[in-house]
């Protein structure tokens, strides 16, 4: 079994964006789901595209997670 590193709580996250794997873990979604949201521009979040990679804003993730509770 592969053990994933622990996640930094969103309230304590110093970065402004997260890579797809970390964002997916915070949102309890598969990484591919986030990639699909980005591709179709149909999800609740829109990523930044930086040098061909997706970067998800911590503020957007926090807002979505807090709104779901």
Report the C-alpha radius of gyration, rounded: 12 Å
Spatially, the strands of the biggest sheet line up as 1-3-2
Element string (H = helix, E = strand) = EHHEEH
- What's the tally of helices? 3
Strand content: 15-25%
Distance between the termini: 30 Å
* Assembly type: single chain
Helix content range: 40-55%
Tally of structural domains: 1
The total beta strand count reads: 3
Average pLDDT for all residues: 93
Structural category: alpha+beta
Main sheet record: 3 strands, antiparallel
- Write down the overall geometry: globular
Low-confidence stretches: none
Compact summary:
The protein has 69 residues and is an alpha+beta fold. Helices cover 42% and strands 16% of the residues.
Q: What does the model show?
A:
- By secondary structure, the protein is α+β, with helices and mostly antiparallel strands.
- The chain has one domain (17-68).
- 42% of the residues lie in helices and 16% in strands.
- The protein has helices at residues 20-27, 31-40, 58-68, and strands at residues 17-19, 48-50, 53-57.
- A three-stranded antiparallel β-sheet has the order 1-3-2.
- A hairpin with a 2-residue loop joins strand 2 and strand 3 (53-57).
- Helix 1 (20-27) packs across helix 2 (31-40).
- The longest helix has 11 residues, at 58-68.
- The radius of gyration is 12 Å and the shape is globular.
